[in-house]
Write a structure and sequence with these properties.
Layout: E1 2-3, E2 24-27, E3 32-34, H1 35-56, H2 69-77, H3 84-102, E4 118-121, H4 128-139, E5 143-147, H5 163-171, H6 176-179, E6 183-187, H7 209-220, E7 223-226, E8 240-243, E9 248-253, H8 258-265, H9 291-297, H10 301-305, E10 309-312, H11 318-326, H12 332-341, E11 346-349, H13 351-363, H14 369-385, E12 393-396, H15 398-410
Parallel strand pairs: 4-9, 4-10, 5-6, 6-9, 11-12
Antiparallel strand pairs: 1-2, 2-3, 7-8
């Protein structure tokens, strides 16, 4: 293998074309082949292998990467810091759900295992969405996020709940079979709680109880007519039928004041104490949440029944937030270091800067999600200036971090 020189054989024995001396040429004992023919051969071999793989195992692309519960938790540990109890609960629920899909009933007499949708309870920035995204990445299944606050009962201004499946279908590249094994994450499910909590609302609640009623068919498992481009804007389009029997629904919400409902049910107060409840973790009352508490909060009983798995996310403390900055595979500090390494700059953060960032996240009650916005304010000027300099190493110290963050906060205040 060598560059084709002017005085060497300059014709390809495969295509018969003259080979420019600027191209790569491969010489054999009795023949030569040009660079273009080599590239074409490469694509032919690749296509042949793909066709052979599809012929030998036509379901290969739709095969789930299902791990055991402990392996799932180990995978989650690489991306999600803390929340050990929630990770265990979700790992078991996900494993049982997809194990059920991979082992369908053999006959009418076989046991029919029902699916278990999951509901996550916790404040913003505790990792609810990250958990669901990481699970879908591990399984290699389509994933979509839907905001419950945009949905209204059919006939009113807003989105139909069927548009959730439209997003899942789009995430699966319109492959219905793949979409029917996907994961749907419904955020802010607490915002559709009916007004008045345990008491039926007197006035029409089109974005609350009506939406919950509309969700029941999707959650339990039914064949739903789904508009591929969204329902109300394109009424003339043909519908695609999707069976939701094997779609895993994960709902989440902050459920403000739910801890008080749980405390009242358990005959105690969040800050109270008596002999019967001395073993209760009063700093995390949400861990004791039951379907009855969700019903009291304002979810209809039918909806509560379709979310049998309930788990809560604990508030992240300073230690956990600092670990989030440093340890996950996609840790924020690792991302910034990687970005600057493309410009040949070695970036370092002093330890007190990390403490400053976590303190601000706790002070502003932003959770883990707020760490990025704080970091962006600190790093914005450095990301603008440093790539144009000849610096090979730069250290972000506490003084610089404070100056940049405070400047970004007060720069528009006269």
């Amino acid at each position: 293998m060598k560059n084709n020189k002017k005085n060497s054989e300059n014709h390809c024995h495969f295509c018969g074309q003259e080979i420019p001396f600027t191209q790569l040429v491969i010489h054999g004992e009795e023949a030569s082949i040009c660079q273009e023919c080599v590239e074409q051969a490469h694509f032919l071999v690749k296509d042949f292998k793909n066709d052979l793989r599809s012929f030998m195992n036509p379901k290969e692309e739709n095969r789930l990467n299902l791990l055991k519960p402990k392996q799932i938790v180990s995978f989650l540990d690489d991306y999600v810091i803390g929340q050990e109890e929630a990770k265990k609960v979700i790992a078991v629920a996900v494993y049982n759900h997809y194990k059920r899909i991979l082992n369908p009933p053999k006959d009418a007499e076989d046991v029919d295992i029902e699916k278990s949708n999951i509901i996550l309870i916790g404040d913003t920035g505790t990792g609810k969405t990250l958990l669901a995204k990481t699970i879908s990445r591990m399984l290699h299944v389509p994933f979509c996020i839907a905001d419950a606050t945009v949905f209204t009962e059919a006939g009113y201004v807003g989105e139909d709940v069927e548009s959730i499946l439209t997003r899942l279908l789009q995430a699966a590249d319109y492959d219905v079979e793949k979409a029917e094994k996907g994961i749907v994450f419904i955020d802010e499910i607490d915002k559709v709680a009916r007004k008045g909590g345990d008491n039926p609302s007197i006035t029409r609640d089109v974005s609350g109880e009506g939406v919950q009623q509309s969700m029941l068919k999707l959650l339990e498992g039914a064949i739903v007519n789904v508009p591929p481009q969204g329902g109300r804007k394109h009424p003339e389009q043909k519908f695609i039928q999707i069976n939701t029997q094997n779609i895993l629904f994960i709902a989440s919400g902050a459920f403000n004041s739910l801890d008080k409902i749980v405390a009242e049910r358990m005959n105690t107060n969040v800050i109270g104490y008596n002999q019967k409840t001395k073993n209760i973790d009063k700093n995390n009352m949400l861990r004791y949440t039951t379907s009855h508490d969700l019903k009291t909060f304002g979810l209809i009983p039918e909806l509560c029944g379709r979310f049998p798995v309930i788990t809560s996310m604990t508030q992240l403390d300073k230690v956990a937030l600092k670990r989030i900055l440093l340890e996950p595979k996609n840790a924020l500090i690792k991302q910034y270091k990687k970005l600057f390494s493309f410009d040949g700059i070695e970036l370092e953060f002093s330890d007190d800067v990390l403490d400053y960032m976590t303190d601000k996240a706790i002070e502003l009650k932003l959770g883990a999600r707020g760490l990025r916005s704080i970091a962006e304010k600190i790093m914005s000027n450095a990301m603008y200036e440093l790539p144009s300099t000849k610096k090979k190493k730069y250290i972000i110290d506490l003084q610089y971090a404070k100056e940049q963050f405070e400047h970004s906060i007060y720069s528009f205040v006269e």
